[in-house]
Amino acid sequence: MLAKPATSLDSNAGAPLHPKVAEALLPLFSPSSSNSEFAAGTAEAGRLDQLEKTLGNPSSQHSAGRRARSSLQRSREQVSASIGAGNSSQIIFTSSGTESIQLALRSRFEPWLRSGIKPHLITTRVEHEATLQMIDWLRAHGGTVAYLDLDAQGRPQAASFERAWSEAPLAARTAGAVLLSAIWVNNETGVISDVRALASEARSRGVFAHFDGAQAWGKFATLDVAQLGANAVSFSAHKIGGLAGTGVLWVDAAMAPSEGLLLGKQEQGRRGGTENLVGIVAIGAAASGIQEGLTARLTALENARDALEKRVVERVGGIVVNGAGAPRVPNTLNFSIEGIDGSTLVQSLDLDGFAVSAGSACASGVPQPSHVLVALGRDERLAKASLRLSFVEPLDMTTIERFTETLASHVTRMRKVRLPA
Ligand SMILES: Cc1ncc(COP(=O)(O)O)c(C=O)c1O
Q1: Residue 27 within any structural domain of the chain
Q2: If you write DSSP's letter for every residue of 43-77 in order, what string do you get?
Q3: Which of 239, 264, 289 finishes a domain?
Q4: What is the pLDDT of residue 257?
Q5: Does 187 sit in the ligand 1 pocket, CB within 6 Å?
Q6: For a surface tag, which of 130, 148, 154, 229 has the fewest beta carbons within 10 Å of its beta carbon?
Q7: Which atom of ligand 1 is nearest to the CA of 185?
Q8: Same domain, 110 and 137
Q9: Does residue 97 have its Cβ closer than 6 Å to ligand 1?
Q10: Together in a domain, 298 and 283
Q11: Same-domain status, 232 and 99
């Protein structure tokens, strides 16, 4: 049976390509086109010689290299403007949001570890897998970890910073080897952390502050990372309609070139490896594309999310909205449904043409309850009974009704079959 075309309600996993991306990439592949900016640097525009057929290596001295460098710089400026960086030299292009997070953290941990100091990480229990992996890495290297308190909706509490800081071994505190890493917008619930308050706590104790901003980009009318009081913020291209496999790490002046993980001269010595020009041009295009009409789109997304939430709560019943009442980005809705299994429901909805995500992660074929929902105090059964809906374009009422009715019919059927205790 052919699957119906899916309505994607899973943009937090990966947003559709932004239309500006294809527009920006086409000239890269047709360098002889007379109106292409990439032809402008060649001696004889239109001549398809070997040089023109290459995308160019930004480190090369010839014309293809210069074109590549100028594309790279343009993208850096587009990204810088979109996230509110103080300066485009604060942008490091990476291979992913995951790499950005791990680069920010490991580039601090490594020098401390080399000098025999065991670092202390202040973080939360609602982080993305990329950070969870670094927590394990740090522990395996002898470091210590303290968790900020969360409120009932999963917002880290700045008031608990002092306690998390004082849990650091004296040697780490004395050496200033304490680091904060916290998620800015939660990928599962859309709940927004008060990053300014956390950064201020960190700053007053000389603690390096990193935020995972992967789900924050494109979700606020302005981002202004340079004004947060943070030292580093990570982003991912495919959350804003760029290509998966590209990320951004914004750093303030505190990150020295020698601290990179992939050693090399690229990215001002902070991230080695020849640049992924296609991904970088795409992220620049998406970054400037999302800014167009952003404020109006955010309002429309919020109206659509609220309408969807209301309909689902009324029609289906037995719904617990995760993150309700907390500041949330307008494109995400997460709820647990009494008496169902989230993974099974995701498959049923998929057959009916709706791509959604379950809160539970499937490890070795066995659904595990979402660690985020468990941290919010949901019991295992409710944590496994959750759905995350996320979208980049506002849903119309027809789609909202169609989705709600489809969901209601599956839930009714599933509730008739009792889940094993
Ligand atoms: C909050 C958050 N952080 C980090 C990442 C990792 O980004 P990437 O997929 O580019 O590695 C994601 C992606 O799902 C995310 O949602």
Answers
A1: no
A2: SSTT---HHHHS---TT-SSHHHHHHHHHHHHHHH
A3: 289
A4: 67
A5: yes
A6: 229
A7: 1
A8: yes
A9: yes
A10: no
A11: yes
Is 52 contained in some domain? Answer: no
CA atoms within 13 A of residue 64's CA, in its CB half-sphere? 18
Q: Do residues 157 and 229 share a domain?
A: yes
Q: Which tens digit of pLDDT belongs to each residue from 254-277?
A: 666 667 788 888 998 889 999 999
Q: Look up residue 344 and give its two tokens.
A: 């099974």
Residue whose CA lies nearest to ligand 1 atom number 9: 97
What is the domain-level CATH number for residue 98?
A: 3.40.640.10
Question: Which range marks the domain in which residue 106 is found?
Answer: 72-289
**Which DSSP helix (H) or strand (E) runs through 397?**
helix 397-416
- Looking at the structure, tell me whether residues 335 and 268 fall in a common domain: no
Q: Which of 124, 129, 187 for a ligand 1 pocket mutation test, highest count of atoms within 8 Å of Cβ?
A: 187
226 and 346 share a domain? no
What would the pLDDT profile of 363-401 be if each residue is shown by its tens digit? 555 678 899 999 999 999 999 999 999 999 999 999 999
- Give the per-residue pLDDT at 213: 98
Q: What is the pLDDT of residues 305-355, one digit of tens each?
A: 999 999 999 999 999 999 999 999 999 999 999 999 999 999 999 999 999
Spatial separation of the C-alpha atoms in residues 414 and 407, rounded to whole Å? 10
Please tell me if the CB atom of residue 128 comes closer than 6 angstroms to any atom of ligand 1: yes
Angle at 404 between CA 401 and CA 405, to 5 degrees: 85
pLDDT at residue 46 is higher than 80: no
Q: Is residue 58 part of a domain?
A: no
Task: Check pocket membership of 95 for ligand 1, CB cut-off 6 A.
Answer: no
Tally of CB atoms within 10 A around 170: 8
pLDDT of 48 higher than 70: no
For position 307, what pLDDT does the model report? 98
Q: Would you list the DSSP string of 252-294?
A: -TT--GGG-SS-SSHHHHTS-S---HHHHHHHHHHHHHHHTTH
Domain harbouring 375, CATH code: 3.90.1150.10
Rounded-to-integer distance, Cα 68 and Cα 62, Å: 10
Rounded CA gap, 278 and 275, in Å?
9
CA of 130 relative to ligand 1 center, distance in Å: 7
- Please give the tally of structural domains in the chain: 2
The reply to whether 330 falls in a domain is yes
